[in-house]
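worker-3 :: picked Biliverdin-producing heme oxygenase
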Amino acid sequence: MSSHADAEYRTFSQTLRERSWPLHDEANGTGFISALMGGRMSRDGYAAMVTQHLFVYEALESVAAGMRDDLIAGPFVTDDLTRVPALRTDLAHLLGPDALDSLEPLASTRRYAERIRETAQWPGGFVAHHYTRYLGDLSGGLAVGTIVSRTYGFAPGGDGVRFYSFERIPKPRPFKDAYRARLDAAPWNPEERERVLDEVLTAYRLNIEVFAELARAYPAAR
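worker-3 :: tokens ->
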């Protein structure tokens, strides 16, 4: 079969993955993530990253609450993915419970969270951010949790790394396959699919900006 024919039969989820892969690699190759995965990031730097995650997921899960009954976005919303309680538990362990009410996002995180909140009136945009965050968490994110646990001496799945533990999704692969099937079945016309794809790329770029700002604030140990 020709490459042209292959392109015709490529599913939307496959197209999303292929078009976003360069930015996915760029995000994973940032100095901050390289230092984190190499065991060279300070505990304070790790705590700062978890703090940024809290603001991003508070925005995402706030929008999700209003999307439960939406015909397009509703099928993607599930409590099995909820991360905010785990993030708050992790931060209470890392910074102390009294620190939770005084946390502030970085400027890049604020822009990221604001962009997510803007999708409250756009189901496709919400799905784009939902896909970018949660499918990443269920893929490479699980490996990050293992390395972070070892680096900072946390019990696997315990306080400090609860964000990386999806207790209600014991088998990520079937969950991700079903998620991608929902992406492929979503009733978007070609123009809307392009808008959704562009928003996925925007989500990656916003995330890269957060990592860049974190790297400036917390240079890795040499």
